[in-house]
Amino acid sequence: MSAFSGTVVILPGLDGTGLLTEDFAAGDWKGLAVQVMPIPKEGAQDYPSLAKKIAADLPPGPLILLGESFSSPLALLISAQERQRVTALILAGGFCSSPVSPALSLIPVRPLFLIRPPATILRKFLAGPDAPKSLIQRLGKAIRSVSSGTLTERVRVILALQEKDCPAPEGVPTLLLQARQDAMIPWDTQSRLERHFVEPTVVWIDSPHLLLAARPEACREAVLAFLNERN
Question: 7-229, which class in CATH?
Answer without folding.
Answer: alpha beta
